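Hello again,

I reread your note about wanting to compare the complex against the isolated chains. To keep things tidy I'm splitting this into two emails, and this first one only covers the full assembly. Below are the input lines as submitted, including protein chains and any nucleic acid or small-molecule components. They are followed by the predicted structure of everything together. The single-chain runs will come separately.
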Amino acid sequence: MKKSIGILLLGILCIFQSCEMIEYHPYDGRISGKTDINKKNIARIEETCRNKETIRFAMIGDTQRWYDETEAFVNALNKRNDIDFVIHGGDVSDFGLTKEFLWQRDILNKLKVPYVVLLGNHDCLANGIEVFRKVFGEENFSFIAGRTKFVCLNTNALEFDYSLPVPDFQFIEQEIKDKKDEYDKTVMAMHVRPFSEQFNNNIANVFQRYIKEFPNLQFCLNAHDHNIAVDDLFDDGIIYYGTPNIAKKKYLLFTLNSDNTYNYEVVAY
Amino acid sequence: MKWSLIKYISFLSLVLLFNLSGYSQNGYEKRVEKYQNQWANLIPTHIKFQYAGGMGLISIGTGWDYGKNNQWETDVFFGFLPKYSTKENKITFTLKQNFIPWTKPIGTKGFYIDPLACGLYINTILNGDFWISEPDKYPNDYYSFSTKMRFNVYIGQRLTYKIPHEKRFFAKSVTAFYELSTNDLYLASAFTNKYLKPKDYLRLSFGLKLQFF
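Full-complex prediction:
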């Protein structure tokens, strides 16, 4: 009898020690901790890169359900001090579960450099996009690092059934005009590249024509395919760089030089 | 003569009585009684309230105890989930199967402990953008899971107070319980990642059970 009371007391003790273990539902959208990550990190990027002529950034993507590997990336990147920021090409979540966004945010927040996260197709599942918007921010956004504008787009058209314009040409048009005197180079980033099954391929060529309106478009970045890919998709000299998923333990490193050239390398860690 | 008449009448009435009662026991009334008893078995034996546990903020349910020592329990719940950072409030439905192998009395004041309760439950969200299997717009096996159905497993403990006969109003006993649970997707995530610790993929819930009979 005393033993059973002991077991019960032990159980109750465990309960009081772990209030953070209360969860209402895996899709409850109950968010604790930091929110609006992209906006806060963009302010940091724009501040630290303000007068820089050479910009160096890492590109990763598809970290869903690879927490150990994402943490390994963060540790590897924190050992360097020559990188200005990190772009995450989307898919932080695998199932759209609320906690997945928070787990990934907490790992990426250990990066010493600022990072931004694009919206991936998996991030749209269930009510994932509502959590994504709260934790990371709007699905279309841009920032200026040095004299280069980075335009980050939601291209996951298959997820939205025309309920949202994907890609959003009004946003693109506005971005071409906005802060025109503050940048003279452009980099485009998106989760899925044109001709992917997620992309609205009816307007793939139109999209390409439109984004070439940006001043001095350097190249395009995408994730989603889980493999390294370097393709001149439209035979027009604009290269699309596909990012490996984080399980490959590789990231892409880009250096934008002051003489309007850039270097690209694949870093294994 | 007179005596034999009395004997005859009493014999006759006994036979009649026996026949009548025999008729009712073996026939129509017996069948009605059986039929009513069968439906009576479907009257829920208890109600439950549960806080958290992946079924909603608060869930209200009812169910049935059965088995030799009432060691089995099947419950159905409706849960309420406020919207928090999402665009709408949600209603959930849960089907839960419990197994409570042992019950031990503590002291003599009517307290009992179930050192182990365990079970499985399926939860579904009744509104919002959730699907059982992916919509046709996707290529085959694009997302090979359901956002609408979650399969959960739990272990827990219970403490029961048997209300003394004279103090009973509606319930014969009250049980408080806690559960430690997880679901299929959390397990799939935890299985391949050392980064995720039990406090990440296990969650606590609490509840109360009122036993009617």
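For quick reference: Chain A has one domain: 27-268.

B.
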